[in-house]
Amino acid sequence: MQKASLRIVRDMAISTVDKRLFGSFVEHMGRAVYGGIYQPDHVTSDADGFRNDVKALVKELGVTLVRYPGGNFLSGYNWEDGIGPKEKRPVRTDLAWRAIETNQVGIHEFANWAKDVGVEVNMAVNMGTRGIDEARQLVEYCNFDSGTYWSDKRIENGQKEPFGFKTWCIGNEMDGPWQIGHKTADEYGREAAETAKAMKLVDDSIELVVCGSSNSHMPTFGDWELTVLDHTYDYVDYLSLHQYYGNPANNLEDYLACSLDMDEFIKGVVAICDTVKAKKRSKKQMNLSFDEWNIWYHSNEQDKQIKPWLIAPPQLEDQYNFEDVLVLGTLLMTLLKHADRIKISCLAQLVNVIAPIFTEQDDNQSPAWRQTTFYPFMQAAKYGKGTVLTPLVSCDSYQTESYDQVPYLETIAVLSEDESEVTIFAVNRSREEMAFDVDSLGLTFGEVLEFSHMAGHDIKAVNSLSSDAIKPIASDSYQVADGSLRVTLAGLSWNVIRVAVKS
Ligand code: AHR
């Protein structure tokens, strides 16, 4: 049996959690929009063609913000194609994903959907084929009151009140050679700075996210961030990070450790932001938007079979298994640990495309269903709001091919906004059971309100339309005595323990 302990101290807080930490992402690609959130012929669809069953799952998931409309798609997208009467909208080639875009969903439809499900829209401007002019016009269209060309066009198209989108991405993954309109750091940095200025001149209440690297393994990582921030530091509010993980080598111990890579990545980017801050003698702190993160590898082979120029092809349809639950749990905890700098993060993506919610293809009857990874995200979004406390952890560790010291326990505690309870999230990376002791200085534990876990499954087991077996269940392996909590964590498990706090 493994042994581990966690001490939390009321006065040692990392940060309060920005609710936008539990964001997600809907790109015009694959079956994310068409056949995902939007399917007019589905039995559950509303008058606008959006699926009510998907909406219900999005609400249950607890997503707070959704980045839109891309992604790689963004860098070839003309937003004007998606406004005005639907029958007049052009059908276009989507060069990023080599598919056909019908433009039946555009800004208005998406904004209405977002309002319906209660999420904030994180809008994005195309920096691939377009730039400053388009960006300022789009902000005017979306956020300007009335009486100008673009704001009046919005009103003509049925939206009297401005959409009032608050956060905006200046392009997507502009460091990537695959990106349409890929740029060097200097080219992008200069243009992003001027674009940011123009966008804020239209609406000075918006917040802007500038592109960091597409992942930490990009050859330009580090230099890209330094150069881009050198140009944009004064004009933007967040630097983006993207990272996806997978287990193509089928090495469980190594895969379970990948949150250590995410942790290093975040620390590195924070250091770069602070270097630029010091160099500029700036008083401003650059925060982070981790606006694409997830597990992505299951669908790599099947995607090679997909023919080009289809409408809504089944791209990136990863089917998530039980080991992905454990990894997703560790990634969520890593984001929470950096809540002092990460203010926005987006699980990429939301429906069908590397997503926690899945719908059946070419099927207008069956309900949407929850992938395995739906659950840790849902629980973190529900109980991870409040104040993250510094985790003082003691446990054994192991070594893998890629990592020297991997703690068997990954854990974090969050004090709820009303300070009435503490939620402890934990992943036991060990195959053995773990005796886990939690104590606190400055908080008195009361009763255990909930202990749920996901454990005991075949690590490759998945959910499907007909089986929802991989989900949290209640556990009674806990006791509270003398103000401390003792829990038994099953081998290879995701755990959520909610404890009342006595005032
Ligand atoms: O989320 C899928 C793709 O991954 C996005 O379009 C792109 O930004 C990233 O490379």
Keywords:
503 residues, alpha/beta, Immunoglobulin-like, TIM Barrel, 7-stranded antiparallel beta sheet, globular, binds alpha-L-arabinofuranose, Alpha-L-AF_C
Identify the CATH homologous superfamily of the largest domain.
Glycosidases
The domain tally reads: 2
CATH fold category name of the largest domain: TIM Barrel
Overall strand count: 26
Described by the principal axes of the CA atoms, the overall outline is: globular
CATH architecture annotation name of the largest domain: Alpha-Beta Barrel
Sheet with the most strands: spatial strand order: 3-4-7-8-9-10-11-12
Q: What small molecules does the structure contain? A: alpha-L-arabinofuranose
Rg on CA atoms, Å:
23 Å
Major β-sheet, in short?
8 strands, parallel, barrel
Q: Which percent band covers the strand fraction?
A: 25-35%
Q: Count helical runs.
A: 11
Structural class of the secondary elements?
A: alpha/beta
Oligomer: single chain
Please report the distance between the alpha carbons of the first and last residues. 34 Å
Which residues sit in consecutive blocks of at least 5 with pLDDT less than 50?
none
Question: In percent, how helical is the residue content?
Answer: 25-40%
CATH class wording of the largest domain: Alpha Beta
